[in-house]
Amino acid sequence: MSNLNIVEKTIxxxxxxxxxxAHQLVYKIGNLKSNIYFxxxxxxPINAKSLLGLxxxxxxxxxxxxxACHCENKDTAESDFKFVLKSINELAxxxxx
Length: 97
Hints:
Layout: E1 5-12, H1 19-29, E2 35-39, E3 46-47, H2 51-56, E4 64-71, H3 74-96
């Protein structure tokens, strides 16, 4: 059995994660090698690559969200985690344009 590397951080979500934004985020992170999980104070971790999962936890602007990347390879987990944060921030910027 191999060890699983986990990279995680809690962030304040910068926008409401609804409909189109949720779809765009799932599309961006869907092919990452790591398993990506989001959780809030009120919810168990959900698969962030699942549109229904993301919509089910009702992330609104200002919600504290724990983001976790699980992968056997530490470098992959770290790079995937950075990509998830970058993707979240890019969608926030596109909101302001």
